[in-house]
Design goal:
mainly alpha; 4 helices; 141 residues; 61% helix; two-stranded antiparallel sheet
Amino acid sequence: MGFPEQPRDQAQSGTQQPGMGQPGVNPPGVTQGPGGYVAPGYAHGLPPAGARTNGLSIAALVCGLVQFLLWFFLLVPGFIAAVLALSFGLGGLAQIRTRGEGGRGMATAGIVLGALGVLGGIAWAILLGVGSAHYHYHTGG
């Protein structure tokens, strides 16, 4: 009974390549992420490259970015864009969870930017209210 033939460099070094079914070897089409085996086509838990991006997550990111421009020119549309970014982001995350689409990072960015815009709008309104009351008190108007 003979030994199976190994390539010359492996036979000389005394090391063997692990075979299928042994630790460190993935079945064809399956990649291994930090937490172990991941579904076929998924690399480190991310959706496959051809996965569809959720539309609400794109809208959330766009509204979250545009609101900052609107705040400088028009206050009310900036606040509306911030609220839309927040709501689109939350809706996008819910759809991503159920549909398995991509765009989680864009939805999260839209939520963060929208929340910052809403909080900034509330702070701006409070400052305007306090400043206006202080002005009217001191001028007697």
